[in-house]
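Anyone up for a design puzzle?
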């Protein structure tokens, strides 16, 4: 034995490089074509060879592991069984490739049962999309580790399996982590790329929205998805699905609880619960009274019961921040392309897959063409024999042996070896006329088939059409709805062009529920019900706020504590007429005793607009709108309140506009909101007094008059005129408005000319706006309207009435008004909202007027 001197550094470098490439290619990284690592590919192929198709009985996993170890994978049985188990777990794979029978582990990270106890077989998706056509020479085969068997280099995948189920692995010096996706979206994206190879990644994201994790959950924002799809690397923020519910407890007061129903991908449920318990014990999270795992076969349910003084939204935000209920998926889209590890974008993944599909269909077509030509060649020989039947029978009978007969057939009739053998092996029954016709018919069919196959090979568009057809077939059979939803990240700008900017109605109820309905739905339902029950809510609940906006608007929610929260209108789930809506505590981080008192829709934050705020005790202030353009998730201070005071009304205004403030006993004051009467103040300020109240009167509302209207109002400081006849004379000269609309709790209303409310200095007594018909009646709304406006009046019992402003007669300040709506004895008008005119009414439709009694 000779000793060969070798440089140590060169030997170490070469040996380590060989080892690294062996790990990269042979173990850790998936192939971009079929999305599988060697161990997964060998397991699926071994099960296919064993006949473990979906229609066959289950077989022991130990049998499969033994087959894989003995024929293809010379490694430990644990590695093979772990890979098999993962392909059967519906919480690990978006579309499992193996159908497992028995204990295959759980989301709590419970280990699977031993392989001698569990059973398995292939899923239908696997046979349809991964192993179909493998016997048609669509892929190359190589020798196994000892040369005794042949195994496929790659499986003829019909779907982009690498993106479908994702992959993770750590190699030498590199790693991969690819998230799973939705099958239907992947197929739509692939088909779109077939039709237009010039599509950009942004275009493809219109079809493939983002990862779709098997455990559902939410994806926070789209920035990480865009990074991953464009560059191959990105951090995708995942969040579990949690709702805030009220738990009814027998014999004890009801409590709020956070119910977790979905977890981020690859999150261990048991460790999550343990982590929450540790944070509670260490007092790093306050407000949690109890944690229970109520999960069962029907689904996941983790109950985090809260203490009575806890703020549910604050506790939930802490859970997101400090526990795996919110985690990041570090996408690293690394895969093998032609044996080389490459970082791929979304488009490159699909391009590699489509190129592979073209190659497999081309090879399958070539195989089918060769088989058809071989069969037709044989049939041509049989037809020659049938055409010369007597001569051939005589030749065969005269021949000394088979070899002589074969040689003579070849020489005399110009047959090939294959044709001669086929004639010599032909059964006597095939000499009948019927069999001869069958052979002729088969020959003609094969000729047509050969022509079609040759046309497929000659035209790329035919191959593309076959790829699309097969993808659509897989989608039709196996596509499922998306499980993971997208939510907006804080500060993220979403593409609102994808969301229709339709008019909507927003309702907030007294018991803290919020719902959004299209205005068109109200119109249709109002016509169908003759103005009754435009939107019904729960009997024991009343409507607190009622407004119209557009879906792209930002809604500013002001609470009685002087805090403002922000939400896009389209983020409020659309509800049907009979649905109760979404609890406000699930949408906004408000406290248990905190109430939303005003909702303002804002289409754009500009420097020349202000928010005018009015408190229950009559304090008013003006703050620039841009101060509220960037509101944190837990809200901002909008106004500083005195003891016992509450923020009740907020309106948008410009500096040249004026405000009119009404009181419950029918008084109203009209003053400018310019910088002289109402100078701009910061957010954390109290404001100044709006009007002088007497006899236990209180403020009931405020509205803004545009600058062009103020010119029509007299600015004299004369004493108030109480002569009804003198005031009445001005009503006939009021013109087309705008008007001041006054609606009482008892259902009476009127339109008053603005000219009857002269401009005064702020903090005065104001003027009388309405005379009540009964001592119990009160002023409920004071609003500015034009003739074309439509009103939506809502009662305490949740009945909505649609009414045209022009149908309400105009009267003087001292008049009592007309009946706007007949009410039951126990009902009253609760709120009034203005719907801007949306166009001409349909022919034959009109607004029913209400005559004064």
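Challenge accepted. My sequence:
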């Amino acid at each position: 034995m000779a000793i060969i001197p070798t440089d140590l550094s060169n030997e170490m470098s070469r040996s380590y490089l060989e080892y690294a490439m062996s790990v990269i290619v042979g173990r850790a990284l998936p192939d971009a074509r079929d999305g599988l690592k060697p161990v997964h590919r060998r397991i699926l192929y071994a099960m296919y060879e064993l006949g473990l198709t979906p229609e066959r009985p289950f077989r022991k996993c130990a049998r499969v592991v033994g087959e894989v170890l003995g024929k293809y994978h010379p490694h430990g049985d644990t590695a093979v069984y772990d890979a098999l188990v993962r392909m059967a777990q519906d919480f690990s794979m978006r579309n499992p490739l193996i159908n497992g029978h028995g204990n295959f582990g759980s989301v709590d990270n419970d280990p699977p049962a031993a392989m001698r106890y569990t059973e398995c077989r292939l899923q239908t998706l696997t046979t349809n999309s991964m192993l179909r056509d493998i016997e048609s020479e669509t892929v190359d085969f190589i020798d196994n580790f000892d040369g005794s068997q042949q195994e496929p280099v790659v499986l003829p995948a019909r779907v982009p399996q690498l993106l479908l189920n994702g992959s993770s692995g750590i190699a030498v010096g590199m790693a991969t982590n690819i998230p799973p996706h939705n099958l239907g979206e992947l197929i739509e994206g692939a088909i779109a790329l077939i039709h237009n190879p010039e599509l950009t990644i942004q275009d493809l994201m219109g079809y493939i929205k983002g990862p779709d994790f098997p455990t559902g959950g939410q994806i926070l924002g789209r920035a990480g998805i865009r990074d991953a799809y464009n560059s191959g690397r990105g951090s995708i923020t995942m969040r579990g699905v949690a709702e805030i519910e009220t738990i009814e407890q027998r014999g004890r007061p009801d409590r709020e609880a956070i119910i977790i129903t979905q977890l981020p991908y690859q999150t261990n449920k048991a460790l999550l619960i343990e982590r929450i318990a540790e944070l509670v014990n260490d007092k790093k999270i306050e407000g949690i009274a109890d944690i229970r795992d109520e999960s069962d076969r029907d689904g996941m349910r983790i109950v985090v019961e809260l203490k009575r003084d806890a703020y549910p939204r604050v506790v939930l935000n802490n859970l997101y921040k400090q526990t795996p209920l919110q985690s990041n998926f570090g996408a690293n889209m690394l895969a093998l392309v032609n044996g080389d590890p490459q970082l791929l974008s979304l488009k490159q993944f699909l391009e590699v897959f489509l190129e592979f599909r073209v190659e497999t269909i081309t090879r399958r077509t070539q195989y089918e063409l060769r088989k058809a030509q071989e069969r037709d060649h044989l049939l041509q020989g049989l037809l020659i024999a049938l055409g010369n039947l007597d001569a051939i029978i005589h030749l065969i009978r005269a021949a000394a042996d088979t070899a002589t007969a074969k040689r003579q057939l070849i020489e005399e009739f110009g047959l090939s070896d294959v044709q001669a053998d086929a004639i010599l092996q032909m059964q006597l029954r095939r000499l009948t006329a019927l069999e001869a016709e069958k052979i002729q018919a088969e020959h003609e069919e094969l000729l047509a088939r050969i022509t079609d196959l040759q046309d497929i090979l000659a035209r790329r568009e035919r191959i593309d059409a076959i790829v699309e057809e097969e993808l659509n077939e897989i989608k039709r059979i196996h596509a499922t709805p998306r499980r993971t939803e997208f939510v907006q990240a804080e500060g993220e700008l979403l593409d609102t062009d994808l969301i229709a900017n339709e008019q909507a109605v927003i309702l907030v109820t007294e018991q803290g529920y919020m719902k959004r309905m299209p205005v068109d739905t109200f119109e249709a339902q109002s016509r169908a019900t003759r103005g009754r029950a435009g939107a019904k809510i729960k009997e024991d609940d009343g409507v607190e706020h009622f407004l119209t906006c557009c879906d792209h608007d930002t809604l500013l929610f002001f609470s009685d504590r002087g805090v403002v929260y922000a939400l896009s209108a389209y983020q409020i789930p659309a509800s049907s007429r009979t649905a109760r809506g979404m609890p406000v505590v699930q949408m906004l981080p408000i406290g248990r005793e905190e109430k939303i008192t005003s909702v303002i829709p804002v289409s754009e934050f500009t420097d020349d607009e202000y928010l005018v705020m009015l408190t229950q005790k009559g304090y008013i202030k003006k703050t620039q709108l841009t101060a509220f353009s960037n509101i944190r998730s837990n809200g901002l201070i909008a106004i500083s309140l005195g003891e016992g005071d509450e923020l009740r009304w907020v309106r948008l205004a410009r500096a040249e506009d004026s405000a009119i403030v009404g009181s419950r006993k029918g008084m109203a004051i009209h003053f400018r909101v310019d910088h002289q009467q109402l100078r701009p103040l910061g957010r954390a300020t109290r404001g100044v007094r709006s009007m002088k109240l007497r006899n236990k009167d209180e403020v009931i509302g405020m509205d803004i008059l545009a600058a062009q209207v103020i010119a029509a109002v007299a600015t004299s400081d004369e004493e108030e005129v109480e002569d009804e006849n003198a005031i009445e004379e001005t009503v006939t000269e009021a013109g087309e408005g705008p008007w001041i609309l006054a609606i009482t709790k008892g259902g009476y209303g009127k339109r008053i000319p603005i000219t009857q409310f002269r401009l005064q200095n702020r903090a005065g007594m104001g003027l009388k706006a309405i005379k009540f018909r009964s001592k119990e009646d009160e002023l409920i709304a004071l609003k500015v309207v034009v003739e074309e406006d439509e009103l939506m009046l809502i009662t305490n019992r949740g009945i909505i009435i649609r009414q045209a402003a022009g149908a309400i007669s105009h009267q003087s300040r001292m008049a009592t008004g007309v009946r706007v709506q007949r009410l039951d004895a126990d009902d009253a008008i609760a709120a009034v909202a203005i719907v801007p005119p949306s166009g001409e009414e349909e022919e034959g439709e009109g607004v029913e007027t209400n005559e004064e009694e």
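A detail worth pointing out: DSSP finds 21 helices and 40 strands in the chain.
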